[in-house]
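Minutes, project huddle
Topic: does the predicted pose make sense with 2-acetamido-2-deoxy-beta-D-glucopyranose bound?
PN asked that the exact inputs be recorded in the minutes so nobody has to dig through chat later. Recorded below.
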Amino acid sequence: MAGYSCKPVHNMRSLIFLGFLAVALQVNAQQGFVSIDCGMDGSTSYIDNVTGITYDPDAEYINSGVNYKINKTYLETAVPVQAETLRAFPDGDRNCYTIDGIIQGDKYLIRGLFFHGNYDGLTSVAFELHLGMNFWQLVNITEPSYPFWEEIITVAQDNSFSVCLVNINSGTPFISALELRHIGSTNVFKDVNQTSSLVLYARVNMGDAARDIRYPDDAYDRIWWLFIASTDWSDINSSQPIQTSPGDAFQVPSAVMATAVTPANGPSLIFSFGADTGVVYYVYMHFAEFDALNQTENRIFDVFVNDKLIVSSVKPEYLLSTHISLIGTSTLETEVIQNFTLTSTSGSNFPPILNALEIYSVLPVQ
Ligand SMILES: *[C@@H]1O[C@H](CO)[C@@H](O)[C@H](O)[C@H]1NC(C)=O
Ligand SMILES: *[C@@H]1O[C@H](CO)[C@@H](O)[C@H](O)[C@H]1NC(C)=O
Ligand SMILES: *[C@@H]1O[C@H](CO)[C@@H](O)[C@H](O)[C@H]1NC(C)=O
Ligand SMILES: *[C@@H]1O[C@H](CO)[C@@H](O)[C@H](O)[C@H]1NC(C)=O
Ligand SMILES: *[C@@H]1O[C@H](CO)[C@@H](O)[C@H](O)[C@H]1NC(C)=O
Ligand SMILES: *[C@@H]1O[C@H](CO)[C@@H](O)[C@H](O)[C@H]1NC(C)=O
Ligand SMILES: *[C@@H]1O[C@H](CO)[C@@H](O)[C@H](O)[C@H]1NC(C)=O
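Predicted holo structure (tokens), as shared on screen:
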């Protein structure tokens, strides 16, 4: 059975330091970003129209592989322009991109985009991603028109990163884009350290949003995906910005926090995810109250996982980001559905809300 526990999320020690960091990030926008468009010919960088991020061709980061263009009938509007080209590795068991200029001991977000786009007429391929000598993720492409993203947040063990595509005799490894974002030594991603990285499972923006939200709304360029809402949910939004407390360890963008879901009927919000076996999960839920409640009104709810009470009496603060952090361990032999239920307490006269959700699996590293 899966077991969950709750961890306190506030760390006031970093209060002053984070205030300073926020200023530094604004001044040095995009500093600490490495954005590589794989398989691109030439040596000229370009600015992505949607994000404003500058992408470089990949030739200076790798010297093996073959450049391809996808079949353009597969390039949909929702797919970033980086997906138009890719680099494939028909030769060698292990082909690696090397990114230098890394600050050893600092936290980084590393993300790959894999968009097959029927470039070679084959429809499925599987290979492994390794970060240096550590296994990171199996990439299993089963749909040529679907963009697969893989993301890890890790502490740099060295002054460079080596991102490797490893052939497992299931087709030719390839990659469309590689992105690295400097997080630094801040309290953000507090659960990432020298021995534990986090691999992204889901990061979703609840409520009606027009687009995925990333940089520049998110200073770290985390991608907050649109979520196809259940018909049991209603979308709500705030016309006012959502603030973060000093020392907030999640730094969820206001644009993400300003939309949320609430039950269409009844006292409960219910959602599920399929957990892999033998994996430790971190689940972060983000809340903010949109209504200026008076003394007799309140919105208080309990959080259950698989019908077990995990956090009681969550009370989102008015126009201020509030977070809970859960740790889940799945020890079953087979994949298990984790059911999350947010239910109003008996004394609450408003239903639960959920503004955003992140789920990561813990990857031990050496
Ligand atoms: C940017 O947008 C313009 C106009 O929509 C388009 O012509 C151009 O190709 C785009 N450039 C890139 C790099 O996406
Ligand atoms: C691109 O894909 C479409 C749809 O699958 C196919 O009809 C077309 O022949 C492909 N083009 C090339 C150049 O492979
Ligand atoms: C990839 O996924 C497909 C479909 O789920 C599965 O049949 C296949 O075994 C997977 N490949 C690997 C290498 O795990
Ligand atoms: C590193 O993080 C993991 C998971 O968050 C935690 O269990 C472990 O105690 C941490 N180790 C150190 C040295 O902080
Ligand atoms: C925000 O909610 C109001 C109703 O409360 C709705 O009319 C409006 O369309 C919503 N705006 C967005 C951007 O979803
Ligand atoms: C709180 O708001 C409700 C609904 O608008 C109202 O009925 C109630 O009288 C208000 N209570 C106080 C103490 O202002
Ligand atoms: C999760 O909910 C589904 C659907 O209600 C149910 O079939 C399943 O047994 C639940 N799983 C757990 C672990 O509670």
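Observations noted during the meeting:
- Residues 46, 49, 81 surround 2-acetamido-2-deoxy-beta-D-glucopyranose (ligand 1) (CB under 6 Å).
- The chain has two domains: 15-185, 199-364.
No decisions taken; revisit at the next huddle.
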